[in-house]
Task: structure prediction
Amino acid sequence: MDFLKMIRPEDVQQMVMNWQQQEPVKGTREEIDFQPVVKLFNPVGPGTWLLTELEPNSSLAFGLCDLGMGEPELGYVCLDELADLKLLAGLGIEQDIHWTASKKLREYATDSRKLGYIRA
Result:
């Protein structure tokens, strides 16, 4: 699980707890709209991920994903795949440790669909 080097342990723990809380109500009207826990970004190009949940013992995360093609979408992402990306100058995908969510994930999604990118 290479992604564990990319995301702070306390944020991993919170996303797992969110997943466990969401699991019994997923697909119902009771589904929880969490604030994102983690913002990941590409330091040398497009790519932003606002993540709320992480499947326990896995690298499968849920959140708002923007690959820089003008169509951010809610969905799942494999964090190990992101952690394995080798970018220019030997850089990789990074966590913005100074970022804190100011709204719920669906609000970010609604805003990003209008803008064509995630503003966070």
The chain has a mean pLDDT of 95.
